[in-house]
Write a structure and sequence with these properties.
mainly beta, elongated
Amino acid sequence: MSLTTSRIFVDTTSGHHILKIGNYSTFLSVLSPPFTVGGHSWRISYHPNGIDTRRLRRTPCISLYLILDGRVPSKLVKARFHFRFAPPADQERRHHPACFPSKRNTRREAHFDSGEVLFVSHGIYGCEEFIKKKELEKSVHLRDDSFAIR
């Protein structure tokens, strides 16, 4: 009887990108400049009037999508990503808002966790209803007609 062994190494990389939206009240859909995480080029697609991809219509919500920006020859790219509001620049080092409510704060924070997703070349995955526009407009995240997503 022979004994064999093997080792498996998983290469994981993490990073983040901040998408800043200025002039929110007059902004149209936008595709972010490319950014690199894990050796792949990505973009964020932002839609202030939402996109319901199943019914091909607009929604009263903000939609956010992550796009694998490029060709990935003969393989899939496994990713897990989150969308949430970035803290204002003056609070960035002092405060990192929770994605989920704490016992003290029962108000739900807008966030999106993709879970594990397999991207193909130029693949897109995201959140059709990140936050309702009316909720954003009443929130602390919208300051001087601007906000940021991390």
